[in-house]
Amino acid sequence: VILKTEASEHWQLIKAGCEQYEKDNPGVKVDVKGPPSETSYDEQTNMIDTDINGGGYDAYIIAPLQSDSVAAQIAATDKPVIALDTNINSDKVVSFVGTGNEKAAKMGAEKAVEEAKAAGWDKVECIEIAGVQGDATNTARMTGYKEGIEEAGGTFLEKETQYADAVADKAVNSMEAIMQTHPEGVAIICANNDDMAMAAARAAKGNKAYEKTIFLGFDGSTSACQAVLDGSLTLTCAQQPYDMGYKACETAVKAAKGESVDNVDTGTEIIEKDNAQARIDKMNEYLAKIK
After folding, report:
1. What is the pLDDT of residue 50?
2. CA 172/CA 203 separation, integer angstroms
3. Which DSSP string do the residues of 64-91 spell out, in sequence order?
């Protein structure tokens, strides 16, 4: 299993799921590794080359940092490949295991419109603070946000999207720009990840026009769940990274045995105050299992 990195909660939870599968299946050996960061492109490339060419594995699970490059790397393998978290356009990939990003974002957006109406917004408009322009995951989430907002009766201000490269510091700048353009306030601010959503909420704190703004994140990290409990973040679309790891291994073993496999959507949970603590407890329990 080659992850995008091991240096974040999301990937640690995926690792925990992989390791639990190994514990539950004594006949299976699972090796989990990843580069130092999600910009360590060369390191991941080297890991993939070494393991693909080494021939010591019956199946591979890869979360690609650069999907096109990985597609070229796996082109000659005769072993099944599972794409994890981000898909790979290759006929060597027998299954994609991860979050249905568009569907998840749509669910979150619909809930955000409901919350905005309950907070007293007559004009429900939404602006997204997005990740990297052109990134497939970012595009899928934006599509879902737009569909959810508009189908629930709101207006998605697509032309006012702020691209912040998935970084909290840039999200602060984006939020400041939004507040300058909309001094009257905006009903919903949705973001491509939790870090940006929390940064935007901090930037808007103290601005009376944004006191009732709904801030929607994506990932369901423990810090975001705590922010929901504290009231600084309204909602987050929670991925299920532990399940991603477990089900990716389960799928890889089936494929290695020659069984037919399908794509696996590991599901989404919308986190609000009522279920935030339960999510935190569950994530901490999973993290405690890591070797």
Report:
1. 96
2. 6
3. -SSHHHHHHHTTT--S-EEEESS----T
